[in-house]
Design goal:
- The protein has about 325 residues and is mainly alpha-helical.
- It has helices at about 15-25, 30-50, 65-80, 80-85, 90-110, 115-125, 130-150, 160-165, 175-205, 210-225, 235-245, 280-285; strands at about 50-55, 60, 250-255, 260, 270, 275.
- α2 (about 30-50) runs antiparallel to α3 and α9 packs across α11 (about 235-245).
């Protein structure tokens, strides 16, 4: 991909992904919040104003495209920093890249396996998004690495580029190309599902207007008391319930079998098989969720105490939206 070597072996990256995304990034969420507030508010406003005007001061716009643009703008701040995320050309490339990759992947399904390694670079050259991203990011990461070597104690930007640079030990420092490869691999997974979740959440708000005022009250109290995400149990439960009924895919935790394996019940997997978890069936199973097909925004709120029974970002065997095990996102 534009000269980058894509590494399929999970062990190639060690525990860096997990440490950066689950520990370092989470510890800086409060620092990122002001910038995220600005970019989300600005992007939402611009999207609404660009919609087709209807009678009664309403504007009409495609919800999924709007959601992708909001998620792309917000995630760009977190991944690449405020400066690069304000570049319209870069933002368009960041928006187009996942779609280009999916289109190429679908085309490769119809090409013989032996020809796929040669066809993939040719197909991706048809799309400018990957070239723009690789060129801009490689230059930025390379510059950051040089600054880090010259002055390790300098004040560093708060974004995933800095996090991945700092997460590497001095003995095995990643190159700029390696860091860009990792960032784009994560970026591919960071736009589509959040955008779908946002669309379904907005749809559920429209279908269940009775929950709008309780959510607003919770947000007012949180703002007045300077609370954090832990102070929003209803919002967390609402988003989790929306995602439970409307997951972005019907299956998850796809794993390609690298060597033959037989489960205790006798189920045999041959090398090259793909195993997965029936995500949608599990999350709509009446044996696991009472009234499983009914939308209940309070389902995950602990009504006997302040907080949630389980959080949206948590994973479990009955809520495998984010994956399972040590590879969970």
């Amino acid at each position: 991909m534009n000269g980058l070597d894509i590494q399929d072996r999970m062990t190639a990256n060690g525990t860096v992904h997990s440490r950066v995304l689950r520990v370092v990034l989470r510890s800086h969420l409060n620092d990122l919040q002001p910038a995220l507030d600005r970019v989300i508010s600005t992007t939402f406003t611009n999207e609404i104003l660009s919609g087709r005007q209807l009678p009664g001061e309403w504007n009409q716009l495609p919800s999924f495209l709007m959601a992708k643009r909001v998620i792309t703008a917000a995630n760009s701040v977190v991944f690449f920093g405020e400066h690069l995320s304000q570049d319209p050309e870069f933002l368009k490339a960041a928006l187009d890249y996942p779609e280009d990759l999916l289109t190429t992947a679908e085309l490769l399904r119809f090409i013989p396996t032996v020809l796929a390694p040669f066809a993939a670079p040719i197909l991706m050259r048809r799309h400018q998004a990957s070239k723009v991203l690789v060129d801009r990011l490689t230059a930025l990461v390379d510059d950051r690495l040089k600054q880090n070597r010259c002055d390790p104690s300098r004040v560093k930007p708060i974004d995933c580029i800095s996090f991945f640079i700092d997460a590497n030990s001095q003995k095995s420092t990643w190159s700029a190309e390696k860091i860009v490869q990792v960032l784009l691999g994560i970026w591919f997974a960071s736009v589509h599902q959040p955008a779908l979740s946002l669309v379904y959440a907005l749809d559920d708000l429209c279908k269940h207007p009775d929950v709008v005022e309780p959510l607003r009250n919770e947000l007012r109290i949180c703002d007045a008391t300077r609370g954090d995400l832990d102070s929003l149990p209803l919002l967390d439960s609402f988003l989790k319930e929306s995602a439970r009924l409307h997951p972005s895919d019907s299956i998850s935790v796809r794993r390609k079998v690298l060597q033959p394996y037989t489960f205790l019940d006798g189920t045999h997997l041959a090398m090259g098989d793909v195993a997965c978890v029936p995500l949608q069936a599990i999350m709509r199973d009446p044996a696991k969720y009472q009234g499983s097909l009914t939308f209940d925004p309070w389902r995950f709120v602990d009504r006997t105490a302040t907080g949630n029974v389980t959080r949206f970002a948590e994973t479990s065997p009955i809520f495998p939206l984010w994956g399972l095990g040590k590879r969970v996102w």
